[in-house]
Amino acid sequence: MRLGVLLMTYGSPADDLHDLPQYMAAVRGGREPSPQLVDEFRRRYELIGGSPLIPITRAQAAAVEEHLRAEGLDACATVGMRFSAPSIGDGLRELSDRGCGAVTAVVMSPQYSELLMSGYRRAIDAALLELGPAAPAVELAPAWYREPGFVEAVAERIRDGLASLPEGAPVLLTAHSLPRRVAEAEPGYLEQLRETAESVAAAAGLEDGRWHFCWQSAGHEPGEWMKPDFTDILPQLRSAGHLSVLVAPIQFLADHLEILYDIDIGARQQAEEAGMVFARIESLNTSPTFIGVLARIAREEAAISAPGA
User: Fold this and answer.
1) Are 117 and 110 in contact (CB under 8 A)?
2) Where exactly are the structural domains of the chain?
3) How confident is the model at residue 1 (pLDDT cuts 50, 70, 90)?
4) From 64's CA, which of 58, 233, 242, 260 has a CA 20 to 30 Å away?
């Protein structure tokens, strides 16, 4: 049976940003953004030259397909976006048309929260209903933050990033912020994030006190968001005498707005204004170590072994 792999993530607005209001409304659960908020995000997307998330996710899918085929498996891989085209339904239809009888669907976040990410499952169910008898059998991969290859892939990036900084530079391990009311309803998800930070720090050889788990990219919604944010930590590091810092996201797997604007522009400006040398790890994107992890997840969820294994 031909194996299909569907890599799923949020998506992004079109290159010309004509659909930015509709995209933002979809991300916000149907609530229309204010014109001021649309203008602000338009400014951010224009500063980074548009989001590369969809092309990178396509490249990741192509690399996973190549990896599986190199192992001797009959496999196809593609992408599906939750809030933009190509949709999850588009991706499953493509895999069905390519003859895939079994599909592993992977949310491109190592940590999984049913509360936050159940929309992926609903989108899969709706697509299968629409495909009818032609629909493949789909397995949704659970959280995979404990995959040794994932932990090592991030640790590799951290070691590479520290090589260009003065000895002893602190490391900020970041995750996407949440409204506190949401976080309090998902203690298991928070534990997954903290465990990821601890595992990555250990694999990268970071001693206690040198690394800090913190949040980034708090939204524009009312109410309290999770603390500490990296904007809180940077002044503390400078006050403690540190002159350099490395930011290492442990949840984001590709370059997109939260990397290229929130970190590379926002956090960098804050650090440099404080007189600190600033660096950010290279995103995993199509790291061979990381692609191998995705390929293994696809095989394991479909209960398929690599030939000769």
Assistant:
1) no
2) 2-145+286-301, 148-280
3) confident
4) 260
Euclidean distance between CA atoms 175 and 109, whole angstroms: 11
Fold of the CATH domain 148-280: Rossmann fold (3.40.50)
Q: Tell me the residue type at 217.
A: S
- Residue 305 predicted with pLDDT over 70: no
CATH of domain 2-145+286-301: 3.40.50.1400
117 Cβ contact partners less than 8 Å away, ≥ 6 residues apart:
107, 109
What is the side-by-side strand order in the sheet with 100-107? Answer: 75-81, 2-9, 100-107, 137-140
Q: In the chain, what is the greatest distance between 2 CA atoms, to the nearest angstrom?
A: 64
- Contacts of 162 by beta carbon, 8 Å cutoff, 6+ apart: 169, 171, 204, 246
Residue 186 makes CB contacts below 8 A (sequence gap 6+) with: 113, 115, 116, 178
What is the edge-to-edge ordering of all strands in the sheet holding 171-176? 211-216, 171-176, 244-249, 277-280
Same fold, 2-145+286-301 and 148-280: yes
Q: How many C-beta atoms lie closer than 10 Å to residue 268's C-beta? A: 17
Q: Amino acid identity of 72?
A: G
Which of 266, 264, 260 lies closest to 51, judged by CA?
260
Q: Which two three-digit tokens encode residue 158?
A: 């951290």
Cβ atoms of 293 and 150 closer than 8 Å? yes
In the structure, how many helices (H) and strands (E) does the chain have? Answer: 12, 8
